[in-house]
Design brief:
Layout (H helix, E strand, L loop, with lengths): L7 H17 L6 E4 L2 H11 L4 E5 L3 E4 L5 E2 L2 E2 L2 E5 L5 H12 L12 E5 L10 E8 H9 L1 H8 L8 E3 L4 H6 L13 H18 L6 H20 L21 H13 L3 E2 L14 E4 L2 H11 L4 E12 L6 E11 L5 E12 L2
Antiparallel strand pairs: 1-8, 1-9, 2-3, 3-6, 4-5, 6-8, 7-8, 10-11, 11-14, 12-13, 13-14
Helix pairs in contact: 4-5, 7-8, 9-10
Length: 351
């Protein structure tokens, strides 16, 4: 190590900068939990980013993202199995081995090694580990994490979980609302969500356009509503759900829709309709992020010249669960032949 060691403050700076970069770049995805190494490899292949490099006794995984260094520090990540108990000691050794910490350094009790996604929600997954001040970690554990975990009686298991708009605030070291501090009324919930959005923009030094503000604000309203009323929905947008969408030219919006769905945010499909913008907004979330990855990879192919896109929502009339059927019409740059491709994105209503 050449006699050069970094300290906890320097590590915190690098960790915060990494999450700030995530918030500033809406096309960047961050994995926070994975079922196994195969899921990590799948994420790496889809995003051309983080890849599993080393695994030890099935208790932890160390990954090396494509960018070896960000802001002067390595971007090596540690994922630990939710059932593994000695994660503090393992994280300390991780800092020594990969972040140039002095082998004799002491990790103060005031600093907590934390599972970015509450391990009680995904016990059988490998979860991204971060360092947090003890008071911040305790505040999240006593409020948001305890409430959300208790509400999830029937969990939706996935092979990978992505960072969302709420948990990135935790990662940066800011607290969320306690349930007792949130007003029970719709107006109170909306006001609380607006305060979180202001904090989000301020912390990350963002100047969001109105579309992005609406999407993030909707997510905050739904999440706070979930904490208060045990149902994840945005009270400002509840309305009749259309069983089928009109065919519309939505290619220019499709990228932003994919990013929002992959981030864990809900989308209002009729907001993207150029034919009937006055229709009731219908809120949906993605049931399978892999569908979004596949389409995103297709759209990023430089050998294709996309021409048009049409979307139908094919939904069960009882549950309204189903999928977006997306048809892309394009020409290839080598022969300009007209080609049609069909994709399906599993969705379900947020109610």
């Amino acid at each position: 190590m050449g006699g050069f060691y970094i300290n906890i403050n320097q590590y915190y700076k690098g960790q915060k900068n990494e999450f700030k970069e995530f918030a500033r770049n809406e096309n960047r995805l961050m994995l926070i939990a994975a079922e196994n190494v195969n899921a990590l490899d799948e994420f790496a292949e889809m995003t051309e980013g983080e890849r599993a490099e080393y695994i030890d006794d099935n208790s932890h995984i160390i990954t090396y993202p494509k960018e070896k260094e960000v802001f002067g520090l390595p971007t090596v990540h540690l994922y630990i199995k939710g059932t593994f108990r000695d994660y503090r000691m393992r994280f300390k050794q991780f800092l020594i081995d990969h972040y140039k910490f002095n082998p004799n350094f002491n990790l103060p009790k005031t600093e907590h090694v934390d599972h970015l996604l509450n391990k009680a929600r995904v016990k059988d997954c490998f979860i991204r580990m971060i360092l947090l001040p003890g008071n911040i970690n305790t505040a999240w554990g006593r409020s948001y994490e305890r409430i959300v975990t208790n509400l999830e009686k029937s969990k939706m298991y996935k092979n990978m979980y992505l960072l969302d708009y709420v948990l990135v605030l935790k990662a940066i070291g800011f607290t969320f609302f306690k349930k007792k501090d949130i007003p029970q009324s719709n107006n109170g919930i909306s006001a609380a969500a607006s305060k979180v959005l202001q904090r989000y923009e301020s912390v990350f030094n963002l100047k969001l356009d109105q579309r992005k503000k609406d999407i993030i604000l909707t997510y905050f309203r739904a999440e706070i509503d979930y904490m208060v009323r045990k149902r994840f929905y945005d009270h400002q947008y509840i309305g009749q759900i259309n069983k089928e969408l009109d065919e519309v030219q939505v290619l220019k919006h499709l990228k932003s829709i994919l990013v929002d769905l992959m981030y864990g945010a809900s989308v209002y499909l009729d907001n993207h309709s150029t034919k009937s913008p006055s229709l009731t907004n219908d809120e949906y979330k993605c049931s399978n992020a892999e569908d979004c990855y596949n389409l995103n990879t297709f759209l990023s192919n430089p050998n294709q010249t996309s021409k048009a896109c049409t979307v139908h929502a094919v939904l069960d009339p009882q549950t309204y669960q189903g999928y977006l059927k997306i048809k892309i019409e394009y020409g290839c740059s080598d022969n300009f032949a007209h080609i049609e491709e069909f994709f399906h994105i599993a969705i379900e209503p947020v109610l």
